């Protein structure tokens, strides 16, 4: 009886241990199989996948830029160039644009418009409704340092594509009854080219298209603040204001609400 009593717990313990090991192996096999069948879809790894896998610091830098915590920067940090290039050309950038524009529409559709033609939505143009990504991609320039000569050549082509989320928002705002004001830092010498570019990409109507005077040397904040002040003094109500730069959205007469489109590629003071 003593022998049987001492052996029984040992056998039971051994059996349970084997069963537990088998169960853990089964879990491991299922986990591996599931991972292979349903791989994680890293949406913003489309262009340069290896450069983004260790991108924690660069992601933090991008968030700092978008939150306006990092200011007066002159170029993308060297270690983040590949990351920013991948972000701007990958689907994460498009998703971020979609989020901003969806939130803008959710806000806009709740407003009570007066139907007197004075409720306006102000859009910046470059990299807010029209994209310069083809220019930066052709130059392979993801550090964001703009060559004035090559950028002028790009601007003269008038081939900037629409940012899909912004174009969709624009059309919805018109249906809601907003008047559209395009306020751009592009100089007046490009007026005809800009009009053709806008119309060709689906922006076919607007209340005002305002370009910077060719001899205007004011900062972006000063220039856009002064134009918005003129709009309000003219009886317009700025119900929404959207741009890719903080200089589009700060200063005076900024409107009832502002919306920042993503752009960690260059900084306009």
UniProtKB/TrEMBL annotation:
Q: Which UniProt keywords apply?
A: Glycoprotein, Hydrolase, Membrane, Signal, Storage protein, Transmembrane, Transmembrane helix
Q: What Gene3D superfamilies does this protein map onto?
A: HAD superfamily/HAD-like (3.40.50.1000)
Q: Which GO terms describe its molecular function?
A: acid phosphatase activity; nutrient reservoir activity
Q: Tell me, what's a Pfam family for it? A: Acid_phosphat_B
Instruction: Quote the EC number.
Output: 3.1.3.2
Read off the InterPro entries from this record: Acid_phosphat_B-like (IPR005519), Acid_phosphatase_pln (IPR010028), APS1/VSP (IPR014403), HAD-like_sf (IPR036412), HAD_sf (IPR023214)
Q: Into which EC class is this enzyme placed?
A: hydrolase
Q: Which residues cross the membrane?
A: 21-40
Output the SUPFAM superfamilies linked to this UniProt entry.
HAD-like
Family according to the record: Belongs to the APS1/VSP family.
What does the record give as the function of this protein?
May function as somatic storage protein during early seedling development.
Q: Which PANTHER family match?
A: ACID PHOSPHATASE-LIKE PROTEIN, VEGETATIVE STORAGE PROTEIN 1-RELATED
Designated name of the protein: Acid phosphatase
The organism of origin for this protein:
Helianthus annuus (Common sunflower)
């Amino acid at each position: 009886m003593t022998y049987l009593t001492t052996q029984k717990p040992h056998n039971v313990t051994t059996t349970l241990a084997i069963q537990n090991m088998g169960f853990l192996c089964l879990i491991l096999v299922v986990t591996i199989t599931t991972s292979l069948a349903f791989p994680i879809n890293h949406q913003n790894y489309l262009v340069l996948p290896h450069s983004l896998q260790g991108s924690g610091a660069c992601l933090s830098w991008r968030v700092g830029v978008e939150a306006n915590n990092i200011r007066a920067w002159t170029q993308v940090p060297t270690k983040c160039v590949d990351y920013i290039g991948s972000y701007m050309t990958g689907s994460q950038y498009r998703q971020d644009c979609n989020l901003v524009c969806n939130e803008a529409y959710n806000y806009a559709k709740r407003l009570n418009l007066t139907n007197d033609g004075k409720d306006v939505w102000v859009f910046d143009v470059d990299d807010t409704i029209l994209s310069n990504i083809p220019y930066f991609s052709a130059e392979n320039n993801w550090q964001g340092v703009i060559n004035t000569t090559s950028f002028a050549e790009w601007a003269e082509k008038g081939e900037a594509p629409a940012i899909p989320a912004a174009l969709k928002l624009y059309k919805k705002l018109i249906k809601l009854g907003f008047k559209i004001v395009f306020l751009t830092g592009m100089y007046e010498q490009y007026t005809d080219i800009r009009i053709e570019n806008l119309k060709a990409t689906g922006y076919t109507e607007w209340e005002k298209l305002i370009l910077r005077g060719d001899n205007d040397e004011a900062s972006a904040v000063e220039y856009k603040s002064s134009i918005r002040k003129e709009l309000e003094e003219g009886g317009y109500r700025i119900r929404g204001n959207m741009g890719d730069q903080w200089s589009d959205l700060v200063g005076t007469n900024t409107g009832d609400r502002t919306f920042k489109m993503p752009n960690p590629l260059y900084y306009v003071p």
